[in-house]
Amino acid sequence: MTTAAPASREGAGASGPTARPRWLWARRIGTWAFFALVAWLLVKQARGIDWDDVMAAFSRLPASTLLTAAALAAASFTLYSTYDLLGRYLTGHPLGTRTVMGVTFISYAFNLNLGSLVGGVAFRYRLYSRLGLGNAVITRVLGFSMLTNWFGYLVVAGAAFCFWPLDLPPDWKIDSGGLRVLGGVLLALGAGYLVLCATAKEKTLSLRGHELQVPTLRMALLQLVMSCTNWSLMGGVVWLLLQQKVAYPEVLAVLLVGAVAGVITHVPAGLGVLEAVFVALLSHKLPQGQILAGLIGYRALYYLAPLAIATIAYVAMEVRARRASRASGQIAAPKPPKRY
Fold first, then answer.
1. pTM for this one?
2. DSSP of 23-88
3. Nearest CA to 126 among 263, 27, 22, 23?
């Protein structure tokens, strides 16, 4: 009894320092694996793009059209970058506005190009955790941002499908009448969310052990305005790059169909999916070459240019976070004074 106690204390003391280096090494390996995955995806994305086609498409578009489309793309990214500010309001976390918008911008750009798991989820968790937020808070912010995005999609797509139904190809399993029905269902879902926010007596709902916070009606209406405006701006970018030769509501509706097709197929950036949808639905109104040229311009302005900016911003944030971590470590553990 008396000899076992010191032995156990010694073992306990040894396990602490041993476990800490193992955890640090595991964390470092995970970090470098994450960087390697991102780098591989970026290289794969770049190799899958025909840069000659990109330059040729740009050369055929008027400079005024490109500038206006770029301005709309910038407005869309700026607006989307405010989505996480709604989550900050709900959670009350202390990060500043510029920091939150920076994280959202980086995550959105990588989400579009590399997929939601890498961009929308992994980057948010990494960046926010580096900035001191806990996983529970990050999950709530991410969930509310995604809800905002797809709530607006329900309403915009519902209105487009109901009031401006597409002239679908005859071999599709759904016709214009079926598209109107789908639009009505989407609008009903959007209206149901508003009703829930307006009438819910308990603002925190429990679903399979997870607590879901129901926003107020004012917050839901703000979500609606922000997201609908963002989807409309995205449609405006494509409409301009197609040189306004197809009605804007029809271009917006096709873009919304392509967005869902890209999510369903799980193809990063929807490569080939968006083009296939536009060609299938608009080739009877525009030459295929013009459609593809406009979409190449759209990818360059809305996907590739923001990705380049986001990559630089991400590296800068990582460098600042590492410097801050080192500085805080030095402050927290100062060297003992020398003895003379």
1. 0.76
2. HHHHHHHHHHHHHHHHHHHHHHHHHTS-HHHHHHHHHHS-HHHHHHHHHHHHHHHHHHTTHHHHHH
3. 27
